[in-house]
Write a structure and sequence with these properties.
Structural class: mainly alpha
Protein name: DUF4219 domain-containing protein
Number of helices: 11
Distance between the termini: 47 Å
Number of strands: 0
Oligomer: single chain
Order of helices and strands: HHHHHHHHHHH
Organism: Penicillium diatomitis
Helix content: 55-70%
Radius of gyration: 29 Å
Strand content: under 5%
Largest sheet: none
């Protein structure tokens, strides 16, 4: 379990839901490419339980009805083929799914804080338990976004303050927004908001005038922060 615990943080709530979800997906795909499909419900077996193997006479009746022939005309090879397609393959698929489902439930439970585990104890199907978790925390994340975004856009440098202290606080606010909506704020948007946040710095106008960034660069924010900190 040490490897799993290092790879997947325990879900504690809104603060790390996105990180938990992505880490869990990566780990399950690493363990077995079929596990994530079971976890998300993309792979479900045709049957909910192993199918009993019918006797030869029962199979003959099934085949005769399907092909409009008499039971006596059904051959041994037809019986074997019917059993393979209608029983053995489905049972094999169920056995594979059942094993993966058990693994998914185990890892899902192990990835949750104790206060959240109670939410999934009633479930025996991993995809249902996972959906229960996601539906709740996705809602919580969407509710948390407006307040976190407001906190970020109102975080401004105060004249006379320490630049490094401000940058640390501003980046922490940005991180909290990204925890609930990691893809909503592109680098250029973050860059523009940072310029708004440092307007009261006496050399901010000089920085804006002389710094001509590549708006497509993924490092646009890091670069302007470095230049801001170099102002002293």
């Amino acid at each position: 379990m040490g490897e799993f615990q290092d790879a997947v943080p325990k879900l504690k709530g809104v603060s790390n839901f996105r990180n938990w979800q992505t880490s869990l997906e990566h780990y399950l795909n690493y363990r077995n490419p079929g596990m994530w499909a079971v976890m998300t419900g993309a792979h479900v077996p045709e049957t909910n339980n192993p199918l009993p193997t019918p006797g030869e006479e029962e199979v003959r009746l099934h085949i005769s009805a399907e092909h409009d022939i008499t039971p006596e005309d059904v051959t041994s090879s037809q019986i074997r083929e019917w059993l393979q397609v209608n029983i053995l393959q489905k049972n094999e698929e169920f056995a594979t799914w059942h094993k993966l489902n058990a693994g998914c439930l185990f890892y899902l439970s192990a990835s949750l804080a104790e206060s959240i585990k109670a939410c999934i104890r009633k479930f025996k199907v991993a995809s249902e338990a996972y959906e229960e978790i996601c539906s709740f925390w996705k809602l919580e994340s969407s509710l948390a976004f407006p307040e976190r975004y407001r906190k970020w856009v109102t975080c401004h440098y105060r004249q006379g303050g320490k630049a490094r202290v401000f940058v640390h606080k501003w980046k922490k606010c940005l991180q909290e927004v990204q925890e609930v909506s990691p893809d909503l704020l592109p680098p250029a948007w973050q860059y523009g908001q940072f310029l708004q946040a440092i307007r009261s710095h006496p050399e901010a106008e000089l920085l804006v005038t002389h710094h001509k960034p590549d708006l497509e660069s993924p490092r646009i924010l890091q670069d302007v922060i470095s230049k801001f900190l170099s102002l002293g």
